[in-house]
Amino acid sequence: MTELNTLPTNHILRNTPLIAIKASYKHTSDKVYREIYPNFGIAKKTFNELSSVWTDDSIFIGEL
After folding, report:
1. How far apart are CA 32 and CA 52, in angstroms?
2. CA end-to-end span of the chain, whole Å?
3. Cβ(40)–Cβ(6) below 8 Å
4. What's the number of domains the chain is made of?
5. Cα angle: 2, vertex 44, 40; to 5 degrees
6. Confidence at residue 60, expressed as pLDDT on a 0 to 100 scale
7. What CA–CA distance (Å, rounded) separates 18 from 54?
8. Dihedral (CA of 46, 47, 50, 54) sign
9. Rounded distance, CA 27 to CA 30, Å?
10. What is the residue range of 52's domain?
11. Given this model, what pLDDT does residue 41 score?
12. Per-position DSSP letters for 1-61, written without gaps between them
């Protein structure tokens, strides 16, 4: 799994829908990652499409 927050903005993982890369996220203070399910509102968005509400205090991971 790769941390999306640290990748360059043009990286393929940051520009692929979260559900397609089996992404998970956790708040910076949490210990456990939560899977992003298809019914989540953000599931079809790419990491780059997420607002700062999601990206500022959360860590996202994913894989191809």
Report:
1. 21
2. 9
3. no
4. 1
5. 95
6. 98
7. 13
8. positive
9. 5
10. 2-62
11. 96
12. -EEGGGS-TTSGGGGS-GGGGT-EEEETT-SS-EE--TTSTTTTS-GGGS-HHHHSSEEEE
What number of residues does the chain have?
A: 64
Q: Indicate the pTM of the whole model.
A: 0.93
Residue pair 46/14 in contact (Cβ under 8 Å)? The answer is: yes
Q: How far is residue 28's CA from residue 20's CA, in Å, rounded to a whole number?
A: 23
Q: How confident is the model at residue 54 (pLDDT cuts 50, 70, 90)?
A: very high
Q: Residue 64: what pLDDT?
A: 81
Residue with tokens 């999601």, as numbered in its chain: 54
